[in-house]
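Example record

One chain of 183 residues, shown exactly as stored in the release files.
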Amino acid sequence: MKKALLSKVAGTLMLSAGLFASSGAMAQTTLTFDAAGNAIFGALHAAAGDYMDTYLFSVDTNASYASGSVVVGKTWIDGSRLANYGITAIQFFKVEADSSQTSLNTTFDTSSGIEFFPVDALMSGNYGFTVTGSTAISGLGGSYAGNLNLAAPIPEPATYAMLLVGVGLLGLASRRKSNDKLG
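Predicted structure tokens for this chain:
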């Protein structure tokens, strides 16, 4: 257990160092997931402008599905609550062994809030996503916060049905062999 934890920490540090050296202009944060597979992320940009924030994470099991949501901060100005940050894109990427990045097909949906996820399952390895946006109110800063969840796939009901049929056939075959020996 300790060896696995140390391996994860060392891998994350190497990943962070490699990406930081290759792209110093971006703010980068390494995400830590809780036991349920959730990580919280966010940024507060005190000055007006355009920003790209990168979040890094590792997947240690095959076939994990990532899904995230983000909310932007609101500011009270002249009797109205206005969004103080605008997110224009969120893009997932895989971090290769040489610290280069390969973009992944990413769904970025703003129809009911902001949701994002890579189209395909993530295999074990190092990944990240970039949040691109800007402050929305002239002359003021802005903020956003989000949650990323990693979950293993849940078998479909048909899989359980096939398992039960298989166990039933094994039981039937076993019973048949028993009866043949008895008589």
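Notes: The helical segments are 2-22, 157-182.
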